[in-house]
């Protein structure tokens, strides 16, 4: 009985440790071109619940630029904010 208890606890700990990530971690903003930063901002974001992203998501630079109506991209900022239940993936683009 003690062996089964130790086995169940070990499996549970192994299951939880295999999904462990350290966070939140934010990537630094990157100057992509020589264009001025401008006033327009476009954001493409998606949430994942328990590590599962439901539906399709376009988190690319072009998708974020289209959402902000940006034709000349200056900077790109990619961000992943992870929590216990929800993880947010965000791409932020600035430009004109």
What does this structure look like?
This protein has 96 residues and is α+β, with helices and mostly antiparallel strands. It has one domain (23-95). Helices cover 24% and strands 35% of the residues. It is built from two helices and five strands; from the N terminus they run αβββαββ. The protein has helices at 2-17, 61-67, and strands at 25-26, 30-31, 40-49, 73-82, 86-95. Strands 1, 2, 3, 4 and 5 form a five-stranded antiparallel β-sheet that branches. The longest helix has 16 residues, at 2-17. The radius of gyration is 19 Å and the shape is rod-shaped. The model is unreliable at 22-26 (pLDDT under 50).
Through-space gap between termini: 68 Å
| pLDDT < 50 runs, ≥5 residues | 22-26
Query: Strand count, sense and closure of the main sheet?
Result: 5 strands, antiparallel
User: Any idea how many domains?
Assistant: 1
Rg to the nearest angstrom?
A: 19 Å
**Backbone shape:** rod-shaped
- Beta-strand content bin: 35-45%
Structural class: alpha+beta
Helicity range of the residues? 10-25%
Please state the average pLDDT score: 80
Q: Could you tell me the number of beta strands? A: 5
> Counting H and I runs of at least 4 residues, what is the number of helices?
2
Element pattern in H and E? HEEEHEE
């Amino acid at each position: 009985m003690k062996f089964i208890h130790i086995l169940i606890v070990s499996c549970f700990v192994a299951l939880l440790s295999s999904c462990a990530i350290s966070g939140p971690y934010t990537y630094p903003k990157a100057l992509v071109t020589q264009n001025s930063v401008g006033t327009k901002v476009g954001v493409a974001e998606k949430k994942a619940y328990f590590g599962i992203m439901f539906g399709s998501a376009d988190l690319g630079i072009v998708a974020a630029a289209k959402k902000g109506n940006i034709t000349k991209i200056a900077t790109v900022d990619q961000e992943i904010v992870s929590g216990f239940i929800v993880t947010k993936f965000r791409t932020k683009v600035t430009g004109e």
